[in-house]
Design a protein that fits this description.
By secondary structure, the chain is α+β, with helices and mostly antiparallel strands. The protein is built from 1 helix and 9 strands, in the order H-E-E-E-E-E-E-E-E-E.
Amino acid sequence: MMERSLLTSRIIGLGLTLGVLLGGVVACSSDSESKTESEKNTQAEAPSSAEPGSSATEGSASASPPDGVDSGTLAELRNSDLVVVVKSAVRDKGGYVTVEGNVTNSGSRSWVGADWKSDENELRNNGGSLAGASLVDQEGKKRYLILRDTSGKCLCTKFDSALRQGQSADWFAQFPAPPASTKKVTFQVGSMPPAEIPLSEAR
């Protein structure tokens, strides 16, 4: 009888020990699964450095000029025969604006600048030149015509010879200066499309 009691006690003790061990294993397994799940969530929330848009330079603007236009160009005017580049427009303290650039004959015939002549009687004798050019102050609603000397010659480039296909020539033109508050004007010459250009101040 006593042997049965001892045996029963041992069996119960063994069962309790197994129960404790199994409980520990289950608890460890549960903790391990929780940690694994937590790590997965953390990885999912962290942005990958390889994902598009994660770069710190996203949205930065390029400072490069448009194709075919160098960094020293204010405007480029084109039609079927000519390419006119405006490179500078400087307001001088003397009360005038000097605009400079170049013109290239991209047509198939020679160009003599006849379309750029002025309609003013005083300037008709300037022939092929920038005598017909003007600046327009849109804000001040004023148009500034080319300056001329006392003999009626324009303060501008006169083309003494024709430009053949592919040839280029530099030019300049001077105008009365708009008020200091005017920071940009529209340059017009002949049948070329008008171009808005910024004014800079002489140093």
